[in-house]
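Quick question: what would this complex look like in 3D?
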Amino acid sequence: MAQMTMIQAITDAMRTELKNDENVLVFGEDVGANGGVFRATEGLQKEFGVDRVFDTPLAESGIGGLAIGLTLTGFRPVMEIQFFGFLYEVIDSVSGQLARQSFRSGGHFNAPVTIRSPFGGGVATPEMHADSFEGLVASQPGLKVVIPSTPYDAKGLLISAIKDENPVIFLEHMKLYRSFRQEVPEEEYTIPLGKADVKREGTDLSIITYGAMVHESLKAAEALEKDGYSVEVVDLRTIQPLDIETIIESVEKTNRAIVVQEAQKQAGIAANVVSEITERAILSLEAPVLRVTAPDTIYPFAQGENSWLPNANDIIETAKKVLTF
Amino acid sequence: MAAKKDKQFDPVKTLHSIEEQFEMFQILNEEGEIVNAEADPKLSDEELTELMTRMVYTRILDQRSISLNRQGRLGFYAPTAGQEASQLASHFALEKEDFILPGYRDVPQIVFHGLPLHMAFLWSRGHYQGSIIPEGLNIFMPQIIIGAQYIQAAGVALGFQKRGTKAVAMTYTGDGGTSQGDFYEGINFAGAFRSPAIFIIQNNQYAISTPRELQTAAKTLAQKGVAAGIPSILVDGMDALAVYAATRDARERAINGEGPTLIETMTYRYGPHTMAGDDPTRYRTSETDSEWEKRDPLIRFRKYLEAKGIWSEEKENEVIERAKEEIKEAIKKADAAPKQKVSDFINIMYKGDLPFNLQEQLDIYTAKESK
């Protein structure tokens, strides 16, 4: 076992699958000699050659189309969208084409494409680099959407994504790339898509969350413990499809829940989670299920982003409302 | 007035000198005479009659499809009359192993590549079984989003290149399609990778109603290939021999590792854009229609073949009768397709296990539908 940051774990997952399956190709803007703008593909071109790890011209839609065409000749593309804010440039290839490839061929063509992309706020980027657009793709039938919060999860989930026969969007929160290290096995292992992980057990309140907000939620849970509350933190890991079983099991145990997302209130996954809880577990609830989200504005200018992004204090405040209801 | 000095750099002159070089390539004139013997692809008599057979068959398929649509027995349909040489002669240069990414008007090419006719009808009607491509048939379903097939063709071509497969990816769009970003991205990607792709622009003069001259300041659409650094050619799209020769050359270059080619075929669609309410009299005059009808691809190819003594009215009638018979049979077969169920739609969404939400919904619909 090695200590790895999340970005090292992501590189390691790609290296593992490039090694294990000759049909895996890694491509995108600057992923070759440069190793990607965040170095996620560092060393891969050198190790596997320019035929399997390669730079593309600068056109996101073209990259998406390229991936679709490559699946028709039996390849398993792992394509990078340099920043997820560029999703709008490739939205037809992603939602209009890839997501529908199995369906519109009556189930004939599979579409084993993994789309990796950095996203998320708190790292002072220019506009269209930090937005949480996961709600957009999660609402498109035909796509799976994965957002890891730890190095260990990142490697196991990315390997599962690459092995999946369906298109998977794999979103990497930029703030988590190098924020901490964790023991990560050097061999291949998978974490099933669609399975949440209880990152902290508790009995008084469930915080259901994903991505960077997992860590804010864990901070909040620790603080709340000092006040005598036992808080459970459920990391969704896959936001489409949701792991309903784990969510409901947790809520039935704690009888209280809040849902935390970095995205705006109108834009994310939280509303879905709340609906599932009210449809399936309303009789277990002692309080309304509240959400902690960013406000419904455009993603803010970099100097103001930290007052806009939800944080542990916001979570504690909302958690207390629910705990004392 | 002072004499204009020679400019060392004159962007206007540069543009004009490039544009002037895009002359329309023709082999067979409107009278069916060879006007460019050097470029004659020298197809055998069997090949010539086969190509004529396919064009006549497609004209009948078009006529029958239009009337079936009017009777409510066919769904979405984009008429093809006028474009037979563009469609069938370009396809005639392909081999079985080549991959076609068609636009929605390019159903004849995929039928002659091997798609059973009843499946084309099911696709038109909106039945998922029309899109279950038979194993080993190298085609994609007709693309509805204008231009998306261009970037996908670049991907198929790159795939062939990586596998060392001696085959090409061939795709089609129209004059309107060349305004799309995906058009430029597709030809640029294939050019950058030197992939074996053939990009056809069937310039039928109108994107629904918008005339060609409103699409772009470019004098020709073929010249757009220059910016991507790929060979490009403007072809008389009513001349089957010219379309065939240009495509065959493009294929040869592609197979030899010389990269993609862009081909603009000058053609015309006699009918409406689609059968869903388009009325060409709102944007075209009958004078323009009859101008183009004089250049009809079937008339000139028929004359050429008759002069060679390898085509006759009798032969043509045989083809027409066979086409009508096969269309009738295919419609019957399409009629026999099972009624589509929501559970079918759920089952074709993903490969492998269904996610929980769809599994839950599948159970509900399966119960409902078994009642």
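Answer marked as accepted. The longest helix of chain B spans residues 45-70.
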